[in-house]
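Appendix C. Worked example: UPF0173 metal-dependent hydrolase ACFSC9_10395
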Amino acid sequence: MKITYYGQSCLLVEEGGKKVIIDPFLSGNPQVDVDVKDIQVDAVILTHGHGDHFGDTVEIAQNNNCPVIAVVELAQYAAAKGAADTVGMNLGGSKQFDGFKVKYTLAFHSSSNELDGQNVYLGEPAGILLTMGGKTLYHAGDTALFGDMKLIGEMNHIDVAALPIGDFFTMGPEDALYAAEWVKAKHIIPVHYNTFPPIEQDGDAFVAALDAKGIKGTALKVGESIEL
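Step 2, the predicted output written as structure tokens:
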């Protein structure tokens, strides 16, 4: 499984000739220097509807003629914005796609975006268990720390987990350390930090704190990849 970090919470995941992108906030991200037209994927997967996660979803889906996979209200929103193929799922549900499997988990946050000048509710926020080629990524989405992360770790063989560390809008580094222990992933990637002033954090310091607990982690730079 190859994972490329595109800032904020965006991951491009590749395995077995399949590519999916999670939370593609690219063109509006000051840290990212990538042309949305160059993104080639088989699906767009969303954790929730906020603009720094929904981002370039519709353009990428249209360019690639690929589905948008999201919680049902958010899938309907993507369709209203112009996505031709959407798959509306919900928390606890899973589906096997061609070359990958998606399961949605709890996340404690909020989810909304603008439609016709009004801020609209876009269903429950979520985490994602993405399985490709026998390996599983847990993308926690934007979330506070919550006890059922222990259950997610106990019920699933998680190879890598992407955990938010930005604080202010999500859990911060201290809470993310608890989450890292609870989800029992072999590797941790910090996400959702340093994009805007309120969420400035030291990713390397977080990885060092993981290491002190015997947990492997990598603070990927924007555009950098890791293979697991």
